[in-house]
Specification:
This protein is mainly alpha-helical and about 280 residues long. It is built from 10 helices and no strands. The protein is globular. The mean pLDDT is about 85.
Length: about 280
Amino acid sequence: MNTSVLARSGRFRARRVARGSVTEGAARAGLAARGVIYLLVGALALQVAFGDTKEQADRGGALAELSQKPFGAVLLWALGIGLAGMALWRLSEALFGSVGRDGRSARKRLLATVRFGFYVFVAYSVLSFAASRNQSGGGSSDRQSRDATAKVLEMPAGQWLVGAAGIAIVAAGGWIGVRAVLRKYHDKLRLGEMGPRTRRLVDITGVAGGAARGLVFAVAGVFAVRAAIDYEPDRAKGLDDTLRTFAETPLGPWLLVCVAAGLVLFGVFSFAMARWRRV
């Protein structure tokens, strides 16, 4: 048997392991963990809209809220491990490709690599909070955004870098929202295993939740662009400040209520993805 055959055989076995039961379990645990975070952030945003909480409506606030529940420490560790599973799944997609006709394309692998890096950071922040619960889930997203923006603005061509990042975030938000409205997630679901009522529920949560998530991303990107143009890091906003901005529109807190409800629906949609997504 020549070396090329051995190499192909090795790659095949590696892909089979990557798509095996361990990686599938990691993916489903990660999607469920993502659902928990969006449910908590959406619930906190609803409380902000009605003036019922001083917690940050972001990941840090969600972790602080979860830590106060019965068995909070156990829940935090489970959440962090689930998100680490999400990172493992995205790494397997980056290395071996994902499901679908173009799952092994360079574009899909690059996107998986970006997601892997993001979920490594999120999992690390959650596990760090679980290990020493005197932090705020890695810190306020608003402060993190301002600090990061200030550091980049001090670099050569910093304004261009921040502006480009903001435009990329706006584009990502639009991409997320449009794909949700067009129900592109159907390509990744085992629709044949769903009944008509379940499919309608998944579509309601997928479209409304995805559109709300995309809107939040896009608005955060706009603030980043403004920070670059005005050379003012304080104009950059994290998730909490971005959500609170919706309450400052002429529609008042009701726009924030709608967006927050959408984030809750996206959390429910993530649970549906954990159950029916093809991995």
